[in-house]
Specification:
Layout (H helix, E strand, L loop, with lengths): L3 H10 L5 E8 L2 H16 L2 E8 L1 H10 L1
Parallel strand pairs: 1-2
């Protein structure tokens, strides 16, 4: 099964506690539901996807700033 391989790789690198990734994402339903699926898949391999959900206009302001 695919989730075992990334877990083995993270153990090999010494990150047994997992990895947390912080993202800012829009409230648009289609895009948000897709990221929730990605979040669940990443959780299976020990990666936490910390999503800060903001209004769509704020999302665009933030991505243009970086």
């Amino acid at each position: 099964m695919i989730p075992k391989r990334p877990r083995r790789c993270s153990r090999r690198r010494g990150t047994r506690t997992g990895l947390t990734i912080h993202i800012i994402h829009t409230t648009l339903p289609g895009m948000l539901s897709m990221m929730e699926v990605v979040q669940a898949q990443l959780r299976k391999v020990g990666i936490t996807l910390d999503m800060e959900v903001v209004e769509h206009a704020t999302f665009h302001a933030n991505i243009r700033r970086t």
